[in-house]
Write a structure and sequence with these properties.
Immunoglobulin-like; single chain; about 45% strand; four-stranded antiparallel sheet; alpha+beta
Length: about 280
Amino acid sequence: MEQLLNGRFEYEVPHLLLSETEVALTLDEGQNFRGELNIGAEDGRRVKGIVTTDHQRIVLAKNQFQGTASTIEYGVDTSGLKAGDEICGNITVSSNLEERCVRVHVSIAGKTMNISGQEIHSLADFVHLASHDFGAAYRFFVKKEFARLLQKEAPEQMALYQGLSHKPVTFQHLEEFLVALGQKEPVMLSAEQPEKTVLTVDQPRKETLYLYKNTWATSAWKSRCRETFWKWKRKSSLQKISSEASTVWNTLSIRRKSGTAAITAELRCVRENRSFALNWK
């Protein structure tokens, strides 16, 4: 209209230029976003117009602009949204040149968890954490954030997790969960000397029983003597072991002389009960 009043007649109208025509974002729960949209004319002339949005979570700092180069600040409000929610809307720019739209798509992801200095984004990250710090993995395993991660990564395993996450939850529950998912091997025990014979026992003495585990795990074991005159240095232990081939040990001693006796160390571990005997004569 101003051009007509000034006697200017143009048949080819320059295009309206926008700094972006599509905005695609992935935000964590509770994380908001602020961006800028730059507006100008193809030939650098003065442009004026209004800006609107069709989604209540896409907020504009102002809805009018005028000038050769204008900037519209906008924001995305994610308060109250959960992982898996989405925001789809448009920012419409109507000017004296033409009307254009900017499509906005926002996906809400779960919060990034940082456990023992390691960011957990997937089940693979969680398994890696468990192999290096089983205790930290256990603390994350019992949190609702892990349930959300599992729902996203492997929803078909939620029934398994719900069955193993009823309180009280122990390290063994996490071990069973990882084995059932095929993310680690079951723990197998072996002894350096499954049976040992000692002759002429005429004074108190000590021996050490070495047990080997085939893979990383954290598990509890208990020992028991059939004879009352034997004594374990430790009757039980919780071994936090992360290496591929590890050793647990216990020391036993004789309290008095005996003719013949047998000791059985009953070691209870995940998915396996093994007995190793030391025969003393």
